[in-house]
Amino acid sequence: MCGIVAILNTTRYEDSVKQTISALERMEYRGYDSSGIAFIDKEHTLHRICSVGKINNLYTKCSSIDGTCSAIVGHTRWATHGIVTVENAHPQVTGNIAIVHNGIIENYNELKNIVNEPFTSNTDSEIISQLIFHYMKTGMTFKNAFLKTITMLEGSYAVAAICSDCPTTMLGAKKGSPLVVGSDQNHIYMASDAVALSQMTPNITYLEENDVIVAEQGSFQILENGTQQIHRNSVPNTISTENIDKGEYEDFMIKEINEEPAAVSNAYNKFKCSVNIEKYSTIHMIACGSSHYVCILAKYIIEKQKKIRIITEIASEFRYRCPVLNKDTLYVFVSQSGETSDTLGAMRLVLSQNMDTLAIVNVQESSIAREAKHCIYTNAGVEIGVASTKTFVSQLVTLLLTAGIDIPVMEVCKSINKVLNNTKNIFSTAQTLIKHKTLLFIGRGVCYPIAMEGALKIKEITYTPTEGYPSGEIKHGPIAIVDNTVCSVVIAINDDLYEKTMSNMEEIKARGGNIVTIGYKSNNICIDDEEMPSIFASITAVHMLAYYAAKLKNLDVDKPRNLAKSVTVE
Ligand code: G6P
After folding, report:
1. DSSP letter for each residue of 80-98
2. Pocket of ligand 1 contains residue 366 by CB under 6 Å
3. How far does the centroid of ligand 1 lie from the alpha carbon of residue 544, in Å?
4. Can you say how many angstroms the Cα of residue 232 is from the centroid of all Cα atoms in its chain?
5. Is residue 1 very low, low, confident or very high in pLDDT (cuts 50, 70, 90)?
6. Is the CB of 19 under 6 A from ligand 1?
7. Does 457 participate in catalysis according to the annotation?
8. Residues 35-82: tens digit of each pLDDT
9. How far apart are CA 311 and CA 295, in angstroms?
10. How far apart are CA 318 and CA 292, in angstroms?
């Protein structure tokens, strides 16, 4: 959540506003309720420009300014503390200090007693600029005030700071939130991720926990724990901007759904397993959001076919329930971004007890990928749409291959392609859905996690109250909501549970509920018969259905309200 970027122009004053805003645009998936920049001009004056809404608004606001500067910081926000206003947007400025922050400062209220200046925002982040300013007033240098400030902070942060009295210095620090640094002949850059710097620097360095960056006099140093200078290897920044283009498509989401066959083949062909799972008596899969549903789906398939005991769990619950860990268990952390705070926190808990961890991650060099004992990449390519789509199928392929289950890739891709070409039926099913106030997605067996994924997608991008439920469970409560304002989406493939789900569908019909179906013999969205291809095709079908429902409601499918793609706060 939240993306930060900072640029220090090391050899000359430059107008870096456009470059900063385009870096923010590439990080918009991290949050997009407001954004802003602050820069130091030739007269050593600090300017702050912020706007509410998508980054395009900031772009318009900055279109005619002279942004010639020595240093600039930028931020795209996903609100945690303080509602969405210009005052609560970042950069937060106190006196001559501007900071941008990703994370949460948990002890900000306590720290407020140290400083004397009035606060101008309701954010937790403002305490950082306040403290730096406060310590500078006591005579400390900018650098020492910054170092002192970060020792006071509890919580998580990736922070960048500039000071108009030290126009050629830029400082940064990382704890719990990602931060990368890179440079070329004329600039030093910091950002929350490599995507932000993809057009700027060919090499980047991923910072480690408690690292501090001190950029001054044309170069930068990394200080371990804010004290000792340390060398950290840099890696080529391979993310190309072509992959982050919509191409011929109207939205990233539909582009990425159309990439689901490629995601399946890439995950399959590039699969490299570094762990022997036969060693373990149990596989414990931990994740958030859609990644968690993939785990449940994989559990159903793997337990049935391979008789391996699998437990699945939501990361935010696992990490705080004092779980009893076991040496015979492989702990598998599944995450598209590799940065989800709860998944990372859960993994660190497992690592701290010396248990074996495997990360299944899409974003290379992300925190979860780097910290896990073993890591397998899902190779789905960059995913921009906030609601995950192609990464879902790539995670499923990877989990199944890890368990030694082969996948008939050609047949799977063929069945997915049939769904992708079935736009007409999916569109008309979406038209039915949007006439209803409430939706219920149901399925049994493998169709149950797919139903939950469908319900989540509908909630995320159409804002329609939707339940995802096991078909057999609806009589224990959810059926009470059924009337003609409710539409149920019944997902049933050609497996041994098909007839049972059909009976549950009749129970809904008998109570006046409306029905659409996805799967075997469906009149709405018909799916191929073979079990493995039909599982994948049903996933694509629920993604498409949610997409068209949101388009029919004229909503922003790529950047739904209140959400962010990378959830780096708890
Ligand atoms: C966010 C996204 C979801 C995603 C979840 C977990 O909530 O909007 O689409 O499933 O995070 O993300 P991860 O990167 O860990 O898979």
Report:
1. SSS-SSTTTSSSEEETTEE
2. no
3. 18
4. 25
5. confident
6. no
7. no
8. 999 999 999 999 999 999 999 999 999 999 999 999 999 999 988 889
9. 9
10. 12
| Integer CA distances (angstroms), 264 to 247, 399, 401, 439, in order | 20, 12, 11, 29
* Res. 242 pLDDT band, cuts 50 70 90: low
pLDDT of residue 218: 86
Give the CA distances from residue 229 to residues 132, 208, 212, 222, in Å, rounded to whole numbers and listed in that order: 22, 13, 9, 6
Query: CB neighbours (10 Å) of residue 299?
Result: 21
Q: Please indicate whether residue 526 is annotated as part of the active site.
A: no
pTM of the model: 0.86
Peptide bond into 236 cis (omega under 30): no
Token digits for 389? Answer: 């789509």
pLDDT digits (tens, 9 = 90+) for 512-531: 999 999 999 999 999 988 99
Q: Which of 361, 567, 569, 570, when mutated, tests ligand 1's pocket best, judged by the most ligand atoms within 8 Å of its CB?
A: 567
Place of tokens 């850059």: 189
Residue 243 is predicted with a pLDDT of: 65
Residue 3 predicted with pLDDT over 90 = yes
CB atoms within 10 A of CB 340: 29
**The residue to which tokens 């990644």 are assigned:** 291
Q: Which amino acid appears at position 252 of this protein?
A: F
Q: Of ligand 1's atoms, which has the minimum distance to the CA of residue 395?
A: 16
Give the C-alpha distances (Å, rounded to integers) separating 31 from 79, 80, 192, 425, 547.
Answer: 8, 11, 12, 33, 20
- Ligand 1, atom 8: nearest CA belongs to which residue? 565
Q: Say if ligand 1 is within 6 A of residue 34 CB.
A: no
CA separation for the pair 438, 441 (Å, rounded):
10
